[in-house]
Amino acid sequence: MDNQEIRNLEPKALWNKFADLNAVPRPSKKEERVIAFMKDFGTKLGLETIEDEVGNVIIRKPATAGHEDKKMIVMQSHLDMVHQKNNDTEFDFDNQGIEMYVDGDWVRAKGTTLGADNGLGVATIMAVLESTTIEHPAIEALFTIDEETGMTGAMGLKGGILKGDILLNLDTEDDDEIGVGCAGGVDITATRTYTEEGLDDGLVGYEVKVAGLNGGHSGMDIIKGLGNANKMMNRLLYNAAENFEIRISSIDGGSLRNAIPRESVAIIAVDENQKAAFEADFTDMAAAIHGEYASLEKELELSIKQIALNDNVMNLESQSQLLKAICAAHNGVYRMSPDIADLVETSNNIARVMVKDGGIKIGCLTRSSVDSSKDDLANTLTATFELAGFDVALSGDYPGWAPNMDSAILKVLEAKYKEINNEAPHVAACHAGLECGILGQNYPEMDMISFGPTIKGAHSPDERASISSAQKYWDFVIEILKDIPVA
Is 0.85 topped by the overall pTM? Predict the structure, then answer.
């Protein structure tokens, strides 16, 4: 794989390490190769390198001359990346490295996610560890695993392993933002069975498809009101079921819980005598949805095509309960923060809908910066699905990160940003799930902050990293490391 174009970008130290990292397949929960890669990297530098019992990698580097009296810092990023690709892209995430290219001021991937989330943070830390010229205090580099599908790396990091006083999390995605808080989250999974029935005579098969949506990060992008393929599909099927005799054979929508679903495909049967009316009605409903999302979802595709159908279909009672449950289940922003302007407090993403072979599985990710509000929405969703005969399980609950506006490292970053850029940074909490809140449970005295380069479209194949922002961010990192407070 030739990413020489990327390696020639400035700052070369950062982009070369990013290219090295992106050559290593690193899906969440399959990080064996990237863990080995990182341990080999630290060992070859002659630095203390350890892997903890869950797979996090920690590399320690002594302070450079003149900075021995500074507080030890923890530079932290996660090793895994979200794997999403366009339907027409042939790519094996388990075995291929990411293929990148330059598009103006942006680095993009060819039809897949880029891995800048959080690969640019990882690459930053690698470049600092490797450098012989950058001034810095003693560093603990913390590379966590499985951030994107459960934060199990951060959850499994035991107290007492880290020695640092200050944590620099490099997982914020706007270069003018300094993160001081984030949302917690919980996975909600609704499952049930249904009776399969054979096809009656006089029914014809159709494939119903929702495609071309933007998708994106289910935390950072939820405020945009983008289309959710699972909700759109359900709307199309609900409307059809109200007006015609339809039977659902299967539904396959969305993928990862932390990605707004971009695509959904359903196989249904329709009364042959209602074909023309069904197709006309679908056209009208599709036009209405296109109109509603005209300014947001310019590539939206809503389509039907007649197909041969030999599979079984869902019994009518279960079909009605399924459609009503997804119709009623909340998706999107649930509550805005009353205290921080323009911050989503609580939201839900109906991320995955699978109907096949007598089983239904619906996966959601509920986020909130307020635990009681998170619990309220979780209860709302649980009640909605249980009323429709589903079993509901909550898992992967993780805490938010409460802002500390008196943070000493915040004051350092604010002052340094103003000095370099002649303007004040945007100090904010975010609706994404950073690992700071989890790490803070075992390291409550650690002063934490989050920042990073500008990345757009994370968790989607439109993910892209700004080249000019990477240079701005790199300069910021170098200056921060020179100005860490004395212990």
Answer: no
